[in-house]
Amino acid sequence: MILCDECGQRPAAIHVTAVINGEKQDINLCHECASRRKEFSVHMSALADKLGMLFRQRAEQAAQQPENEPIPALTCPTCGTSYAIFHKTGRMGCADCYEAFRAPLTEWLKKRVGAGIYAGIEDTGSQGTLSGRMEIIRLKKAQKAAVDGENYELAAQLRDQIRLVQSQLEGRTHE
pTM here? Predict the structure, then answer.
């Protein structure tokens, strides 16, 4: 059992991890000590407003989506998981399911996320690592298109840009 970092007497019920100026800090607090800290205080009216707005947004999104979207009759050849099971549970059966369900997943991402690729939410502490990875994906697609179109000069320029972004990312991760 982890004890509260502040009082050292009661069991910690709240665990907070914060990254401040690049340093990770873990704080374990009991309910009583957490309630005394300003940063954990909750204004109930503001919380109620936020929750109401969230529920309205979810209802609007549900109203905009077709109720009976057709579910493709696809099955993963490796594990036998059907797309219908994935659609219901949200879980893939194995790594090959991603390839087996590529087309409907891409459409789903386009509708819900606005793009066919989702790389996660950018961590503000990562100093642009995610945006760098997305830039590499974009450049590699452009490079492939240039090679397919036999524009090798452009493909070489894109290759150099990819290397530059990769070296910048490696520099950020080693700092």
Answer: 0.32
